[in-house]
Design brief:
The protein is of the alpha+beta class and about 775 residues long. The chain has twelve helices and 47 strands. Strands 22, 25, 26, 27, 28, 31, 32, 33, 34 and 35 form a ten-stranded parallel beta sheet that branches. Strands 2, 4, 5, 8, 9 and 10 form a six-stranded mixed beta sheet that branches. The termini are far apart.
Length: about 775
């Protein structure tokens, strides 16, 4: 048996050697049936590719566009290969093959793997129309922006709308009638699918009554009241302390004068005032704050740490008056003792005021501000100036007194039962050095750099666990060229309106939610003002447009009247609304205020002449009549135009014909209105002419340009009560550029529609009149 076993083992060896060697078996030819994944996003991370197929062997190699990859054998039907991030850095198609070595073997047919460019993130810049009437039928809206693709979807309050792709910068969508049954606001977003893609920040569309719309919920002024006839005042502390006293300069009590000025503001459409009270000292009202004592006059606020009984008695009277007039208050409480440790003094001062004002219905918002009592302005670590009672310097960071004080103050007010939504602090936005968080070695700055103020306020809200829907972010935004406060940092300059738009978009991105309330608590033109570069009137016009664009609740323009005559006459200080003095005279900014506070038509078709605009072409949705010409005019062919970016690039130009009796008109489509209702319609107009042959004649006989409001009944016939209202301007009203012309009118009792008409009457003027029209609304 032993021998047999040996033979059985040896025999195969002996046989295999008989007659020489034989060839090894041939390797099969591989084939690919699928890849997993079959596509990847460009710029993605390294990944493992699974190759499925047949006839794979342990020495099979996966090739990527002909280049061998590290390959792992799984089975005869699957291989895996390691693909690096560099392999998929660029979009395109890759040929994947499998190679089996010889003998036999060979390469499979190629399978294609797609490297897909990620979809862009969509951004909404505007929605047209920005409001839709309640009860409307299915309504098509146009969304403008960037990053749109063929698979973009518009969402209305989270529900997908039927969306049509126009271009990378324009979509249209249909809002169904069932979504337009209640007055209110809705959130519009655009979503792009992956890879990449995402959801845009929301834009707001208003669902309004048939009658019209307001441009903002809060139309406000920073209220320094004018002690008319006196060279200075009233300061806020004076208003309260002298409430019942007779003022000989105005011939009435202070309270009666404040009542008169509130009525005047309210008649302009103002429904909100910002009122600033500061910690003051028990000194003479004439005291001027000087370092190092840094005493604060009682004229500007309430005594610290204990407000006087007069202040606490009269303050509710002021609040009652504001409420009675249908107005509300953004109250600023500035404490210039932030460098004190958390102390009973803070609580004494704030507690006394909040116990009076915290639950008063006139108070819409309370903002905590101020500074340390002494500050270091040159960075040597030694205080050398008095703290500023203004917006808290949250830019100093989260370990510094301003941040810690604001956090304490909001927490303290919450402990008194004041709703979180009524508590905030002013955030300075738009200063380039703050927006880019400029590095600094100055003491008193956390982390060696400036901090974005909105991010600091958000951090405070987070620390206090205040839900998004209960937060109010308050911006202080004074328009300025981008690089004005660059502080030596590299900066490519931009005009003030462009930079303001970018700033607001960036701050809204920090907030990151549409649930929070946002207000512009203080707006204006950053001093020193150079009106030849950027005027206060243009700043206010642009900021109002940004309030609408970004769904801001509203704001307060700085300011109603200058605190003293010197400030009133200083062109570098910015334009208040009212000039100081007994007379009621106003600056150019009042025109923007009238527009802002007015009740406007819901939507005038093509109000800024941008739709289907071609230079020299006809304006869409406007009828042109006369023996002259009416055509679109490209503003950007002029240096410095458009004067305000939100006006758009086109205007409508009307020119008289060659006859001295020539008339040229442009008429809008009809817009629905409520009867017996006061409306405001505004246009930016540019015209200049002279040589009136009849300057002392009746208005109808003189050369003129006019805005005419034409009234129609529900059946389309002219109103039988009053066919139109005409507002005319003459050679003495000529403008040096575009000027704002608001008109106010009340619709007749039988009116259901209006049309807006512009008219140029030559009336024997030797030369034709040219009228440029823009931004009608």
């Amino acid at each position: 048996m032993q021998t047999l076993k040996l033979i059985s083992l040896v025999l195969p060896i002996t046989l295999s050697g008989c007659g020489g060697s034989s060839s090894p078996p041939s390797n099969p030819v591989p084939s690919i049936t699928s890849l997993s994944p079959s596509s990847v996003p460009a710029g993605g991370a390294a990944f493992t590719l699974a190759v499925n197929g047949n006839s794979f062997i342990s020495t099979s190699t996966v090739q990527w566009n002909g280049s061998s990859q590290t390959t792992a054998y799984v089975s005869a039907t699957q291989l895996t290969a390691s693909i690096t991030a560099a392999d998929i850095a660029a979009a395109g198609n890759v040929n994947v093959t499998v190679v089996n070595p010889s003998p036999g073997g060979g390469s499979s047919g190629a399978a294609s793997l797609a490297i897909i460019a990620p979809n862009p993130s969509p951004i909404i810049s505007s929605v047209s129309p920005s409001s839709v009437a309640v009860g409307s039928p299915d309504t098509t809206i146009t969304i403008s922006g960037t990053g749109f693709i063929t698979s973009s979807v518009v969402n209305f309050n989270g529900q997908e709308l039927k969306t049509s792709f126009g271009s990378a910068s324009q979509l249209s969508a249909v809002i169904r009638a069932a979504s337009l049954t209640a007055i209110g606001s809705a959130l519009l977003t655009v979503s792009n699918p992956g890879p990449g893609g995402g959801v845009s920040l929301a834009s707001t569309i208003q669902i309004v009554g048939m009658g019209g719309r307001y441009r903002a919920a809060d139309v406000g002024l920073w209220a320094y009241f004018d002690d008319r006839g006196y060279p200075s005042g009233y300061y806020p502390g004076q208003v309260i302390q002298n409430w019942d006293q007779f003022d000989s300069s105005v011939g009435s009590t202070v309270s009666q004068e404040i009542s008169l000025q509130l009525d005047t503001m309210h008649a302009m459409g103002v429904n909100t005032i910002t009122f600033d009270l500061r910690t003051s000292d028990n000194v003479s009202p004439q005291t001027i704050s000087t370092f190092p004592a840094c005493l604060v006059t009682p004229a500007v606020g309430f005594q610290y740490p204990q407000p006087t009984s007069t202040e606490l008695t009269n303050f509710p009277k002021f609040l009652d008056m504001v409420q009675y007039k249908g107005m509300k208050i953004f109250l600023i409480l500035d404490n210039v003792h932030m460098d004190e440790p958390i102390s009973s003094n803070w609580q004494t001062w704030l507690g006394a005021i909040l116990n009076v004002a915290g639950s008063h219905p006139a108070i819409d918002l309370i903002m905590f501000g101020g500074d340390t009592h002494l500050v270091d302005t040159n960075g040597d670590g030694i205080p050398d100036a008095c703290g500023i009672p203004a917006e808290p310097p949250l830019w100093s960071g989260p370990t510094e007194p301003p941040y810690l004080y604001v956090k304490w103050a909001i927490g303290y007010a919450l402990s008194l039962g004041i709703p979180a939504r009524k508590l905030s602090a002013e955030c300075i936005v738009g200063s380039y050095n703050i927006e880019v968080q400029q590095p600094t070695a100055s003491p008193g700055i956390t982390g060696g750099h400036l901090w974005r103020t909105v991010a600091m306020l958000k951090s405070i809200f987070d620390t206090l666990a205040i839900p998004d829907a209960q937060r109010t972010y308050a911006f202080s935004i004074f328009e300025q060229n981008k690089c004005r406060y660059a502080g030596g940092l590299p900066c490519i300059d931009e005009r003030a309106d462009i930079w303001a738009d970018e700033t607001v978009a960036s701050e809204m991105n920090i907030i990151g939610t549409t649930a929070a309330r946002v207000v512009f608590a203080e707006i204006g033109n950053s001093p020193p003002v150079d009106a030849t570069i950027w005027s206060s009137q243009h700043a206010l016009e642009n900021l109002i447009a940004l309030i609408e664009k970004y769904g801001i609740e509203g704001g307060c323009y700085y300011l109603w009247a200058a605190p003293d005559n010197n400030s009133d006459s200083d062109p570098a200080g910015g334009l208040p609304i009212k000039h100081r003095g007994l007379n009621w005279t106003y600056t150019a900014s009042q025109k923007e205020l009238l527009d802002w506070g007015g009740y406007h038509l819901i939507s005038i078709p093509n109000p800024s002449f941008e739709d289907a605009a071609v230079n020299g072409g006809s304006p869409l949705n406007w009828g042109i009549f006369g023996d002259g010409s009416g055509s679109l005019y490209l503003l950007t062919q002029e240096l410095g135009q458009p004067e305000v970016a939100t006006r758009g690039n086109f205007a409508l130009r009307l020119v008289n014909g060659t006859f001295q009796t020539s008339t040229e008109t442009a008429t809008s489509l009809r817009v629905g209105v409520l009867s017996s209702t006061a409306y405001t319609t505004t246009a930016n107009l540019r015209f200049s002419f002279s040589g009136d042959p009849n300057p002392n004649g009746t208005p109808s006989s003189r050369p003129q340009i006019s805005m005419i409001i034409v009234y129609y009944t529900a059946n389309g016939s002219p109103s039988s009560v009053r066919t139109s209202d005409v507002f005319s301007w003459f050679q003495e009203n000529s403008t040096s550029g575009f000027a704002t012309f608001p008109v106010q009118y009340t619709t007749p009792s039988d009116a259901a529609f209006v049309a807006i008409q512009f008219e140029v009457l030559r009336n024997d003027l030797p030369v034709p009149i040219t009228l440029d029209i823009d931004n009608v609304g």
